[in-house]
Every structure is written in structure tokens, then in C-alpha cells.
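User: quick one, sequence for these C-alpha cells?
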């Protein structure tokens, strides 16, 4: 029986040229901090459009938020917000810039050591600065959700937090701003969105046909549109379809009231924290083995996935499941994201360190049934070599 509380206050402004809407979306008297990454927005004109949209307001900038944003860098932005008495944040970039901005929003007036926000996974956030986003990389869904992941470099710890106080007020999604993405990031984005759907869909049946069909629709769309964007990077409609898919994959809708897994993401975070792999690379490595190792617990949904997403209806149950997992892996490879630890020069020698980090972050009973122990994670990693 479905039973849930679905809350999402983020307004989406979607389409070509929508950055100009900043003029209306940001309060006229706001003292704004624009946060961005390593400079892609300066090279592709997004920065200039943002600045003209904000004309007339007090605007400061903070650049240098790195992929997998670090606590160390973000605390500098917190200092700037406090020093300049800024009261509105605007994230311009991909998931890292948006996640980083969520942390800055919560930390700016946090009483106590902001690291506690991560230690308590966001449960102790009582207020946050308002912020909007201009998304330049479809992948994480951060533009329409209340989650964020921050890395403390000194501890090699990558920690998620969430709070309803860090939903963006609005997000501007202009698909034409994604033309300049390197193909590696395009592939990463499709794989990340795909994995988000799988974490919420591929668990066990709870008679939730609406969520199931939404999830399958997103997977089928990603399978159709992903290769098209690699073949025709300048096609607006394909870019738009991918962008909207990635947002819907993690805005809470398909996950409302259904069991959720997230074990692949938690193991993946350790791979990024320890070895610097891109977020989506870690998912491409872990997800296929995670499904194989947990075949029994996920059997009913794996068969549904095989039939409805990959059209696999012949052969034994095990054959259909194995083939669906193989096709999933092939799709990630087709998107240019390698799926084996050895592709990234990692292997057996790294597994103990990964498990040790999982243990120290209390990631010892993961998954929708809390049955992904360290032993299960070890099997998954061994199968991922
Ligand atoms: O820094 P700049 O110069 O902007 O370059 C970025 C960066 O190097 C570049 N880029 C972005 N838009 C571009 C562009 N280059 C050219 N043209 C454009 N239009 O892309 C690079 C990667 O950016 P990043 O933001 O790191 O990628 P992504 O959006 O994949 O975000 C990854 C982060 O999000 C977290 C991940 O863990 C990771 O830290 N996640 C956040 C989630 C959430 N908040 O809900 C869920 C996800 O599972 C994920 O964990
Ligand atoms: Zn992800």
C-alpha cells in the first residue's frame, strides 16, 4: 500500500534563452553570490548571460568549486557570504557547483562547526539561505532535489546530506548550454541518471505501477536518446530530452513511497573519495555487479526490467536476468563509460581499503533490505574487477 509524503518546491524554468528570466526570478534587492566551477561558464558565454540577468543587483563571485566539491573550498565561500553579508546564492554549473551551493546555504549561518552538518547528514540544519541554480550539466538531479554530497579532502571522506531547507527556489535549464560539454561528461550524465532510476526502481515489487512505469519510461528514453547525443551533439531536442530525464530521475517523484536501494552509490562514493574516479564511472563499475550479486533479492524486479526495458521474454529466468544485466553494462560502455575496475588501473589490491572506508562511514547494512553487508560489498567489488 502506497503511503508517502512528496514535497518539491523547486520551480523549473526550462528552454532556450531562459537565463534572462533571472531578472524576474531573483529578488531585485538581493545581495547575490554567484558560485561556479573551473571556468567552463566563462568560455561558453553562460557567465555573461547570468550577469546581464542579474543587472542592478549587488553581485559577488566565488569560483573554483571543483568536481566532487570539497568542504575546504566551500568554507571559503561561507566566509565570503558572512563577510559581505550576502543573502541570495546562485549556483551556475553542474551537480558539484549545485551541491556545493547547498552546503554554503546551510553553513552560512549555522551555529557551531559546519562539519557537523555532514556528520549529522543534514538533520541538524534549521535554516538556509535561499538559492537558485543555472544548470549546465544534466546528470545528478541536484537542480530539483534536497540532497548534496561534499568531500572532506583531508579525511578522504565523501558524505551525503539532505534537508528540505536546501531545495533550490528555482532552476534554469537551458539545453543549449550543454552543447559545450566534453563527451565524457555527456556519457557520465546519462549513466548517473540511469543509475538514479535503477536505485529507486530495481528493488522488490510493492504494487506501485505508476512509479514503475515512470521509471521504465525514463530508462527507455535514456537508452534511446543517449547514443543520439553522442552522434549529434548539437541537436537541441536530444539535449532537452536528456536534460529533463536527468531531472526527473531524482526529484523524488519516482521514489515516492517505494523501497530504495542506493548501495551502488554508497560504494561508488568511496571509489571517488579514495581514487578520484568520476561519480558516474564508479556507478558504471559497481551497478552491474551489484545486480548480479543480489539477484535473488531482486529477482522479481529484474525479470520485469528484462521484459519491459530490454524486451527479454525468452529463455530461463536466469538467462533473462543475466542478459538484462549484460545489456545494462553494454549501454554504459556505449555511452563511453568503462565498467571494470581494471579499466581505471584498480583491482584486488584496492578492495580492502574500500571496505575499510565503507566500515568507517557506517555503510555496513546497505540496500533496500539492509542486507548489503561488507561481505556482500566485497563480492560486488570482486566481481567488478
Ligand atoms: O568546473 P567547470 O569548469 O564548470 O567544468 C565542469 C566540470 O569540470 C564541466 N562542465 C559542466 N558544465 C559544462 C562543463 N564543461 C563544459 N560545458 C558545460 N556546459 O563538467 C565537469 C564535471 O562537473 P560536475 O558538476 O562535477 O559533474 P556532475 O554534474 O556529474 O556532478 C557530480 C557531483 O554530483 C554528486 C556527485 O557525487 C558529484 O560530487 N551527486 C549529487 C547528487 C545530488 N545532489 O542529488 C546525486 C548524485 O548521485 C551525485 O552523487
Ligand atoms: Zn548519482
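Assistant:
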Amino acid at each position: 500500500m502506497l503511503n508517502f509524503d512528496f514535497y518539491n518546491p523547486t520551480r523549473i524554468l526550462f528552454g532556450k534563452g531562459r537565463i534572462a528570466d533571472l531578472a524576474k526570478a531573483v529578488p531585485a534587492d538581493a545581495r547575490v553570490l554567484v558560485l561556479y566551477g573551473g571556468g567552463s561558464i566563462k568560455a561558453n558565454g553562460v557567465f555573461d548571460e547570468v550577469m546581464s540577468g542579474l543587472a542592478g543587483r549587488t553581485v559577488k563571485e566565488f569560483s573554483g568549486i571543483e568536481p566532487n566539491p570539497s568542504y575546504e573550498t566551500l568554507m571559503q565561500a561561507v566566509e565570503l557570504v558572512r563577510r559581505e553579508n550576502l543573502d541570495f546564492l546562485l549556483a551556475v554549473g553542474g551537480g558539484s557547483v549545485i551541491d556545493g551551493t547547498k552546503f554554503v546555504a546551510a553553513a552560512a549561518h549555522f551555529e557551531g562547526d559546519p562539519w557537523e552538518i555532514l556528520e549529522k547528514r543534514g538533520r541538524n540544519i534549521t535554516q538556509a539561505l535561499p538559492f537558485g541554480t543555472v544548470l549546465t550539466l544534466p546528470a545528478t538531479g541536484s537542480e530539483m532535489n534536497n540532497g548534496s554530497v561534499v568531500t572532506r579532502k583531508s579525511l578522504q571522506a565523501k558524505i551525503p546530506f539532505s534537508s528540505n531547507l536546501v531545495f533550490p527556489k528555482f532552476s534554469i535549464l537551458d539545453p543549449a548550454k550543454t552543447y559545450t560539454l566534453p563527451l565524457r561528461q555527456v556519457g557520465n550524465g546519462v549513466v548517473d541518471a540511469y543509475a538514479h532510476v535503477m536505485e529507486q526502481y530495481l528493488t522488490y515489487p510493492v504494487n506501485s505501477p505508476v512509479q514503475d512505469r515512470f521509471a521504465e519510461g525514463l530508462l527507455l528514453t535514456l537508452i534511446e536518446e543517449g547514443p543520439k547525443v553522442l552522434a549529434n551533439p548539437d541537436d537541441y531536442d536530444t539535449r532537452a530530452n536528456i536534460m529533463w530525464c536527468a531531472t526527473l530521475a531524482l526529484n523524488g517523484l519516482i521514489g515516492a513511497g517505494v523501497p530504495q536501494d542506493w548501495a551502488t552509490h554508497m560504494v561508488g562514493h568511496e571509489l571517488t573519495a579514495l581514487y578520484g574516479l568520476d561519480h558516474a564511472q564508479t556507478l558504471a563499475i559497481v551497478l552491474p555487479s551489484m545486480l548480479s550479486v543480489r539477484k535473488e533479492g531482486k529477482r522479481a524486479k529484474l525479470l520485469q526490467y528484462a521484459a519491459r526495458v530490454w524486451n527479454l521474454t525468452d529463455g530461463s529466468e536466469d538467462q533473462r536476468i543475466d542478459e538484462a544485466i549484460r545489456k545494462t553494462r553494454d549501454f554504459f560502455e556505449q555511452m563511453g563509460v568503462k565498467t571494470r575496475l581494471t579499466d581505471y588501473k584498480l583491482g584486488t589490491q584496492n578492495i580492502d581499503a574500500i571496505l575499510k572506508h565503507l566500515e568507517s562511514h557506517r555503510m555496513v547494512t546497505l540496500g533496500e533490505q539492509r542486507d548489503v553487508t561488507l561481505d556482500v560489498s566485497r563480492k560486488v567489488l570482486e566481481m567488478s574487477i
